[in-house]
UniProtKB/TrEMBL annotation:
Keyword Transcription: no
Organism encoding this protein: Dendronalium phyllosphericum CENA369
Keyword terms: Membrane, Transmembrane, Transmembrane helix
Domain Band: 76-241
Protein name in the entry: SPFH domain-containing protein
Length: 309
């Protein structure tokens, strides 16, 4: 089984120092080359052969070889790293490390270099249609905030880590949606997508991190950005929610009215303001409940007493 690759620092040298060395060698070699060419022209004018000149100056030959073999190839070893960026180095098919420090660097000129962005990114998923835990079709989408923390895994674990993040994010959203209902009823009070948004976001982030660990990606935040019933049942569910809200409002109004009536009767009895028999209490309770629970303003009726002939 192939060993998993993890990021480690690569060999590098300050690019400005190496640039100064290369420029110095190039200037010295150029100066020496020009001087020897001038000397060669003088010797040729006196009738000597070029072969005799080269055989008599081994340093000139070594200098030319050094310029061709060392100085010129070393130019490809220079590279720059921007902030929040990593450069993955590969030598003849073997991973030899990554450079994260921003700046101008020099390394083995025979390595290939691949830049990986370490910046924080957003992924906005498409609106996905899926059935929730109760079988109701819903539309759901999420936004995922992520960044690369291991450049080696991102480069070698998958073909395209950005596409991998997108596909696995949509898969995790579907998996999350089928485990929870859209909304919970008052009887069960079970966790739901709409009822516990913070817990749902944490569960989505945890599942995404488990799926994307292999790519060296860290999920910073994951949160639902869209949640609604599918169009074919949206109107029915809207009427259901409206009916539920109306029932809850009526229940709260009735409970408040009963409490006010009970408080009024207790005060009348405690302060002995008036003595009421059972029939008059029932009539008073009925009138108060009608006034308190009615949607329209009650019209007062003044009782002036009873007229006897």
């Amino acid at each position: 089984m192939e060993q998993k690759i993890k990021e480690f620092p690569a060999f590098k040298v300050n690019g400005f120092i190496m640039l100064a060395v290369v420029v110095t060698l190039a200037l010295f070699g150029g100066w020496y080359l020009v001087s020897r060419v001038q000397g060669l022209e003088a010797l040729l004018a006196r009738g000597l052969k070029v072969a005799d000149f080269i055989s008599g100056d081994e340093f000139f030959v070594w200098l030319i070889a050094t310029l061709l073999v060392v100085v010129i190839p070393s130019l490809s070893g220079f590279f720059s790293v921007e902030p929040n960026q990593a450069v993955v180095l590969v030598l003849f098919g073997k991973y030899v490390g990554s450079v994260r420090e921003s700046g101008f660097w020099w390394t083995n000129p025979f390595v290939s270099k691949q830049k990986i962005s370490l910046r924080v990114r957003n992924f906005n998923s498409k609106i996905i249609k899926v059935n929730d835990a109760e079988g109701s079709p819903i539309e759901i989408a999420a936004v995922v905030v992520w960044q690369v923390f291991d450049s080696a895994k991102s480069k070698f674990a998958v073909d395209d880590y950005s596409e991998f993040v997108a596909i696995q994010s949509e898969t995790a959203i579907r998996s999350l949606a089928i485990r929870y209902p859209y909304d919970s009823s008052d009887e069960t009070e079970a966790p739901s997508l709409r009822g516990i948004p913070d817990e749902i976001a944490h569960a989505l982030q945890k599942e995404l991190q488990a799926r994307l660990e292999v790519t060296g990606v860290e999920v910073i935040e994951a949160r639902l950005s869209h949640l609604a019933y599918a169009p074919e049942i949206a109107q029915v569910m809207l009427r259901r929610q409206q009916a539920k809200a109306l029932i809850d409002a009526r229940r709260q109004i009735v409970e408040g009215a009963v409490g006010m009536v009970n408080e009024a009767l207790n005060r009348l009895s405690t302060e002995q303001m008036v003595n009421l028999d059972d029939e008059r209490k029932a009539s008073m309770i009925n009138n108060l409940l009608v006034v308190l629970t009615s949607e329209q303003t009650a019209q007062p009726v003044i009782n002036a007493g009873t007229l006897y002939n």
